[in-house]
Amino acid sequence: MQRKHVLVTGGSRGLGAHLIRGLLADGYRVSTCSRTRTPVIEELLGQPEVSDRFFWGPCQVGVAEEVDTFVRDAVAWAGADGLYGVINNAGIAQAGILASFPNVESEKILQVNLLGAIQVARAASQYLLKAKDGGRIINISSIIGTRGYNGLAAYSASKAGMDGLTRALARELGRRGITVNSVAPGYMKTDMSSTLNAGQLAQIVNRTPLRRLASEEDVLGLVRFLLSDAAAMITGQTILVDGGVSC
Amino acid sequence: MEKQEILSAIQKLVADILEQKGLDVVTLDASTELLGGELGIDSLDLATLVRELEETTGRDPFSEGFIEFRTAGELADLYVR
User: Fold this and answer.
1) CATH number of the domain that A224 lies in?
2) Which pLDDT score is estimated for B8?
3) Domain-located, residue A199
4) What are phi and psi of A136, to 5 degrees?
5) What is the residue-averaged pLDDT of chain A?
6) In terms of residue numbers, what domain contains B14?
7) Lowest pLDDT segment from A62-71, A166-175, B21-30
8) What are phi and psi of A238, to 5 degrees?
9) What is the pLDDT of residues A198-228, one digit of tens each?
């Protein structure tokens, strides 16, 4: 049975783990990578109903050789299903006032969040182009790529860069039916938002028209839509899932 | 690989691309311009071609940076050991 293969980076925890669980439940073939095999990965590999549709490979996103190897292995694993979708989800965050923020931390953030996304998109687009039947690239960005936030300068720059990648790639790959979009969650109660304290999160909820933080399920909903045929005419966009806080 | 072998590989890959696009297959030589000429391939086709050449030859001449090339012969030269 033919299944669409979606490659998700950073699926071992947090939002990435939620995305791969959701896509497996939808019937997709799913591959993911992380630096180490986490309990989430072990659990999915051990589930008979999904293990034949799930592939994990070790990979440090941001290291081009490792990305190339992982993408090649994942496509080889998928066999005739090739590659349909790519979700650039792997990311790291670190907060601090820039004036005293170590340069090495900024470099790490840019290396994983932005260069890593470029590396994955490059490697994957080679297979998407070869397949010649379209595809999807979804970059998991952040509201912090379009809105400023105290203490997150490097992270914000990495996500704004990712949104630029989305627009450029949408133009580059559009003529082959490959859509490229950014999904930008608002402030979430996840690992990536651990840099915000309870008071800051409460303040954000008060400023949000829908009066709650975005959830992983909210993000999955948009990802599902963008992967579907219904989204075939949407490309080059940064779509916020933020309960209206930015409107 | 010798240059002629690589040129033959380029010829075959270009023929595959043109066939898939429903275009007439043309014979190319070392002086054939890959883009902007009469060949009928675009920049995305060329990206696919370069990727296939990497697999065929086991070499990636662009790993250290971008190198300009215009013709099939100039591209083949990049893969000659």
Assistant:
1) 3.40.50.720
2) 95
3) yes
4) -135, 135
5) 94
6) 3-79
7) B21-30
8) -110, 110
9) 888 888 899 999 999 999 999 999 999 999 9
Q: Is the pLDDT of residue A30 over 60?
A: yes
Residue A247 placed within a domain? no
In this structure, which amino acid lies at residue A100?
A: S
Instruction: Spell out which residues of chain B touch residue A173, defining contact as CB-CB under 8 Å.
Output: 44
Q: How much of chain A, in percent, has pLDDT values that exceed 70?
A: 98
The residue type found at A6 is: V
Whether A9 and A89 have beta carbons less than 8 Å apart is answered as yes
Domain with A42 in it: 5-239
Looking at the structure of chain A, the number of domains it has is 1
Name the closest residue on chain A to residue B44, using Cα atoms.
A129
In this structure, the strands spanning A54-58 and A85-88 are unpaired
Residues from chain A that touch B44, judged by Cβ atoms under 8 A, are: 129, 172-173, 175-176
Interchain contact, A129 vs B42, CB within 8 Å: no
Residue of A nearest to B17 (CA): A130
Which of B20, B44, B48 is opposite residue A175, by nearest beta carbon?
Answer: B44
Q: Is residue A71 part of a domain?
A: yes
Residue A246 placed within a domain: no
Q: Is A134 left (phi over 0), alpha (psi -120 to 50) or beta?
A: left
Contacts B48 to A, Cβ<8 Å: 126, 129-130
Nearest to A126 among B20, B42, B51 (CB): B51
Q: What is the CATH number of the domain that holds B22?
A: 1.10.1200.10
What pLDDT is recorded for position A195?
66
